[in-house]
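Lab notebook page, bench 4
Experiment: in silico fold of construct C2
Operator: M.H.
Input chain length: 275 residues
Purpose: comparison with the prior construct
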Amino acid sequence: MKAVILAGGRGTRISEETTVKPKPMVTIGEMPILWHIMKIYTAHGINDFILCLGYKSEIIKQFFAEYALRMSDVTFDMAQDKIIVHRHVKEPWRVTLVNTGLDTATGGRLRRIRDHVTGGPFCMTYGDGLSDVNITDLIAYHKQHRRLVTMTVCKHTSRFGILTLDQDNRVDQFVEKPTHEGSWMNSGFYVMDPEFLDAIEGDDTILEKGPMENLVKLKQLAAFRHTGFFMGMDSMRDRMELEKMWAAGNAPWKKWKDGDASSGPEVENFLREAC
């Protein structure tokens, strides 16, 4: 199965970072949030990715073009004109980078990659959200319920503390980031049938408006309830919170195992050509 990641938006709400890079390339630890998202899928055996690019797409292309060099320990023996690879962690990825336009809306970006997702359901998510959602169970749920789209939903949690006051304006109760009982929100991890994309009209179509609203009317939108972790990176405050989790070794979305170090002649050839 393939996973489509929307990675073309401008990310204006985190402009401190996105003036020089696209939002999916903002780092958590030493790696872009895009890498973290892809590793979430890899933990469930999904390694075929289609990235919908737009704003500063060349930076994402450069990241993958130089990935082997970045992830390797190498010696450059200039006198002997040799490159020696000491350690290289390979990814089992196949990554297709598609320029879907600078100002294309979310639905339009999906429409543009229609030819890449023939043959069955595919996963889709945004390039700025992390979760410990069980992708394997999500896919099974989608196939069981046979709707055009399955959306992962989680409990809505307020970003701000909520308090109540007594009649003398004293704080009577304070709850930090309360969960709204009975209120569910879209957490951005989908499974879609390709036929759904045929209903998207063009570049200006916003996925979350017309197409999703029509699915509701047709009773073709299923909800997969997720009660675990989800967090979108919408601000520098969010980024710092995710960074703290990662640095502390307490990142709920990290369900993958770090790969064993390996190297091979194909890596050496790549490095030689890159240099």
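Observations: The chain has a mean pLDDT of 87. Residues 2-153+185-274 form a domain with the Spore Coat Polysaccharide Biosynthesis Protein SpsA; Chain A fold (CATH 3.90.550.10).
Next step: discuss at group meeting.
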